[in-house]
C-alpha cells in the first residue's frame, strides 16, 4: 500500500497541510423563531390530545393559554424582530397570488409551478396563524363560562376551529414531506437546525439564542405558576383531582 506523505526534507518550505472543515450551511432561521414554532406545535398537539378528557382539563387549558401567548410573541417578533423573521415576508408571498392566477390567461412563465409551491406553503402558514386566534378565544370563553350564557354553542365553535386547524396542520406537514421529496432537500431543516445546506450568506445574521432561552423559560414558569395557582378540583375532576384521588387511595392501603 502506497501512502502520500508530505515532504519534510530539510530546506523544503513548500509542504502543505490540507484541512477540510465541513460546511454547516447557511443560517436561515434564528433560535427564537424556531423555539416559538416548536412551542406552538407542541401546545396545539397537546391541547388537541387532551381536548376530550376531563381528566386532563387543566393541561388542556394551560396549553391553550400557552398557544395564545406564544402566538402573540410571534406576531410581535414578526413586527419588530430581525428582517428574516418579519411577517411582511409572508405577506409579500401572498401578494403574488393574484399575479400567479392571472398568468393562466397566457403562456405560463418559467418557474410558475415553483412559485405555486411557495404560495401553497405561505397560504397554509397564514391559515394556521389566523386560525389560532378564534381557536384560543373560543376556548377561553368556553372555559370561563361567564355565568353559563355561552352554552354549548361556544363549545361547538371551539371544536370546529380545532378540527379545522388540525386539517391545516396535516396540509402543512403534507407540503413539507411532498416538497422535500420533490426538491430533494429537507424542507423541515430551517425549523429544526436553522440552516440549509449550501454556500451563501446567512439570512439570519444572529442566532439570538438568549431570547429563545428566555421564551422557553417564560413558558415553563407559566406552566409552574398555572399548576400551583389552579383551584383544587373535586376528586376525579381534572388532572389535579386525579392526583389527589390517587394520593387518598395510597393512604387507605
Structure description:
The chain is mainly α. It has one domain (27-190, 203-226). Helix content is 65%, strand content 2%. The chain is built from 9 helices and 2 strands. A two-stranded antiparallel ribbon has the order 1-2. The protein starts with 25 loop residues before the first strand and ends with a helix. Residues 2-22 and 233-251 have low confidence and may be disordered.
Question: Can you count the beta strands?
Answer: 2
Roughly what fraction of the amino acids lie in strands?
Answer: under 5%
Number of domains: 1
Spans of at least 5 consecutive residues whose pLDDT stays below 50 are 2-22, 233-251
Helix-strand blueprint:
Blueprint: E1 26-27, H1 31-49, H2 57-80, H3 87-95, H4 97-102, H5 112-144, H6 151-183, H7 189-192, E2 195-196, H8 209-229, H9 238-252
Antiparallel strand pairs: 1-2
Amino acid at each position: 500500500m502506497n501512502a502520500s506523505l508530505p515532504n519534510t526534507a530539510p530546506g523544503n518550505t513548500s509542504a502543505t497541510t490540507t484541512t477540510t472543515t465541513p460546511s454547516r450551511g447557511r443560517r436561515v432561521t434564528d433560535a427564537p423563531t424556531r423555539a416559538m414554532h416548536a412551542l406552538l406545535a407542541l401546545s396545539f398537539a397537546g391541547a388537541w390530545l387532551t381536548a376530550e378528557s376531563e381528566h386532563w382539563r387543566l393541561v388542556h387549558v394551560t396549553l391553550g393559554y400557552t398557544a395564545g401567548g406564544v402566538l402573540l410573541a410571534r406576531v410581535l417578533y414578526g413586527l419588530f424582530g430581525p428582517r428574516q423573521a418579519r411577517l411582511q415576508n409572508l405577506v409579500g408571498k401572498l401578494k403574488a397570488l393574484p399575479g400567479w392566477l392571472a398568468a393562466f390567461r397566457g403562456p405560463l412563465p418559467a418557474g410558475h409551478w415553483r412559485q405555486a409551491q411557495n404560495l401553497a406553503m405561505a397560504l397554509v402558514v397564514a391559515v394556521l396563524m389566523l386560525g389560532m386566534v378564534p381557536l384560543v378565544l373560543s376556548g377561553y370563553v368556553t372555559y370561563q363560562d361567564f355565568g353559563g350564557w355561552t352554552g354549548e354553542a361556544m363549545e361547538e365553535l371551539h371544536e370546529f376551529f380545532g378540527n379545522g386547524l388540525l386539517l391545516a396542520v396535516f396540509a402543512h406537514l403534507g407540503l413539507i414531506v411532498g416538497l422535500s421529496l420533490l426538491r430533494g432537500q429537507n424542507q423541515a431543516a430551517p425549523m429544526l437546525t436553522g440552516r440549509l445546506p449550501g454556500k451563501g450568506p446567512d439570512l439570519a445574521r444572529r442566532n439570538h439564542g438568549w431570547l429563545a432561552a428566555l421564551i422557553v423559560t417564560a413558558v415553563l414558569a407559566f406552566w409552574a405558576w398555572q399548576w400551583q395557582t389552579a383551584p383544587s378540583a373535586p376528586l376525579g375532576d381534572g388532572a389535579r383531582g386525579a392526583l389527589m384521588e390517587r394520593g387518598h387511595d395510597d393512604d387507605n392501603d
